Amino acid sequence: MPVLTAGAGLHETLALLTSQLRPDANHKEDMVFLKDVFSERSLGYLMKIHEKLRQYERQSPIPVLHSASSLAEDVAEELQSGPMSTEEKELVHLLMSPHLKAVLSVHDTVAQKNFDPVLPPLPDDFEDELEEESVKIVRLVKNKEPLGATIRRDEASGAVIVARVMRGGAADRSGLVHIGDELREVNGVSVIHKRPDEISQLLSQSQGSITLKIIPAIKEEGRLKESKVYMRALFDYIPLEDKATPCQEAGLPFKRGDILQVVSQDDATWWQAKRVGDSNLRAGLIPSKQFQERSLTLCLPPLFPACLPTEDCDCEGYFNGQYIAGLRRSFRLSRKDRQGSTGEGSDPGDPEFLTYEDVSRYQQRPNERPRLVVLIGSLGARINELKQRVIAENPHRYAVAVPHTTRPKKPHEKDGVEYHFVTKQQFDADVLNNKFIEHGEYKENQYGTSIEAIRSVQAKNKMCIVDVQPEALKRLRTAEFKPYVIFVKPRVPESRRRRSPGVPDEDLQEMRQSAIQIDQQYGHLVDRVLIKEDSASACAELRGILERLEQESFWVPISWVRT
């Protein structure tokens, strides 16, 4: 076995380790996986970068001087004072370029350690104003962003209390403002007799340095650890339409299908969350799962003690431009519809409890069975034609689950190719044993697609593509299949001028209603909507989706990836 030298780097160690991996019968898949990971060129580059940074760190570099910018200006001025050669002209051009000036300016700032915000000195009379009770002076640098805290008036004492600190906001990042703190002054202005909305306006108008006089809460809680919980929203939420929210401006609007990172669940009623992919540092308020389920179940306004309708903040339309257009869809049930419901659990397929679904990132590993691809479609989508066309283009990678039927076999057909031909007695027995994901009757013959037919395709390391009625999605949403659901619907023109010739208005309306109905009932289970303009473009789009499924990571229910 080769021996590493004393000066061997991480990338050399990694290369040696990779060369020593020898798959055996018991751990073949694990070894192949490790070898693939260690052989990644990007990982090798990262190891080399790591080594260079460590070498640079060990040198303990320090700035040679603190005025590189002025020195460069002096050199350029000296060179320009007399005749210049070609090389000197080029040097002057480089020294005067905006990019190099910016680099030298940053160098000087870091060298002088002049990058901390400059705060004005405390007023001389601050110490005289401090009362006998413990008071702390908090000074923050606040630019255009909100402070990230809400306040309320305590009914018993009349004091202005910090009701909530928004994760990621200026107040939270400072670590100096806590829930329960009593606010006395803002920039030297007493707020004892001001209304919360007046105080919020005062805070929102303050820019730059802002000084707060605060009486700390009896028990100051330390900064809370940020949660790493991710959830898929199963409903639309518009804070401006929610009268129950403590602070509408601090609410986080989201659409069904958005992935939310829940950063705080300390409040049982209102969680703090961020939308994955947003650049905002500050979290927003969303109704908790328990709170939303209670609203949907009882169809009543929430009466949680943590709901503080008198909270005010300095957001001043901070989320403007991000509100979701359209009406909020309600899944609330009438008393009659709720009769017989146990209210237990929160199945994401149950429209009575469409709240959130815990999710995690998942990417198909090498030699792992491909994910099941499920197509559902509204009237006019012709998804079977789309499926067959994609499979015909690449039968080595994609295949269809061979259905079962009770009809007689035709002379040119082979059992297990076009269909699995079975007797009616066998078919009925399979139905009783729940072997079919869906089944039905056509011209007095039974047809059905079985679970085993899907497994048979996946066992060949092919991606199985099935088209089913939306009702079958519940049966397929398992960790075994990890289905990726694509909703195919034809583009139905609204304008009379653009309508397809020969298609009656009644048919277009029926197609439109079919798509709306499926979206309302099953849209929360859909991973991708494919608008079908024509067969060629729809086929190309579907082909691209299938390729990405094997190469990229996707959000899936967390129960699918738990070991």
TrEMBL record:
<dbReference type="InterPro" id="IPR036028">
    <property type="entry name" value="SH3-like_dom_sf"/>
</dbReference>
<dbReference type="Pfam" id="PF02828">
    <property type="entry name" value="L27"/>
</dbReference>
<dbReference type="InterPro" id="IPR001452">
    <property type="entry name" value="SH3_domain"/>
</dbReference>
<dbReference type="Pfam" id="PF00625">
    <property type="entry name" value="Guanylate_kin"/>
</dbReference>
<feature type="domain" description="L27">
    <location>
        <begin position="6"/>
        <end position="60"/>
    </location>
</feature>
<feature type="domain" description="Guanylate kinase-like">
    <location>
        <begin position="370"/>
        <end position="547"/>
    </location>
</feature>
<dbReference type="InterPro" id="IPR004172">
    <property type="entry name" value="L27_dom"/>
</dbReference>
<keyword id="KW-0728">SH3 domain</keyword>
<dbReference type="InterPro" id="IPR036034">
    <property type="entry name" value="PDZ_sf"/>
</dbReference>
<dbReference type="InterPro" id="IPR014775">
    <property type="entry name" value="L27_C"/>
</dbReference>
<dbReference type="Pfam" id="PF07653">
    <property type="entry name" value="SH3_2"/>
</dbReference>
<protein>
    <recommendedName>
        <fullName>Membrane protein, palmitoylated 3a (MAGUK p55 subfamily member 3)</fullName>
    </recommendedName>
</protein>
<feature type="domain" description="SH3">
    <location>
        <begin position="226"/>
        <end position="296"/>
    </location>
</feature>
<dbReference type="Pfam" id="PF00595">
    <property type="entry name" value="PDZ"/>
</dbReference>
<dbReference type="InterPro" id="IPR050716">
    <property type="entry name" value="MAGUK"/>
</dbReference>
<dbReference type="InterPro" id="IPR001478">
    <property type="entry name" value="PDZ"/>
</dbReference>
<dbReference type="InterPro" id="IPR008144">
    <property type="entry name" value="Guanylate_kin-like_dom"/>
</dbReference>
<feature type="domain" description="L27">
    <location>
        <begin position="61"/>
        <end position="118"/>
    </location>
</feature>
<comment type="similarity">
    <text>Belongs to the MAGUK family.</text>
</comment>
<feature type="domain" description="PDZ">
    <location>
        <begin position="137"/>
        <end position="218"/>
    </location>
</feature>
<dbReference type="InterPro" id="IPR027417">
    <property type="entry name" value="P-loop_NTPase"/>
</dbReference>
<dbReference type="InterPro" id="IPR008145">
    <property type="entry name" value="GK/Ca_channel_bsu"/>
</dbReference>
<feature type="region of interest" description="Disordered">
    <location>
        <begin position="335"/>
        <end position="354"/>
    </location>
</feature>
<dbReference type="InterPro" id="IPR020590">
    <property type="entry name" value="Guanylate_kinase_CS"/>
</dbReference>
<dbReference type="InterPro" id="IPR036892">
    <property type="entry name" value="L27_dom_sf"/>
</dbReference>
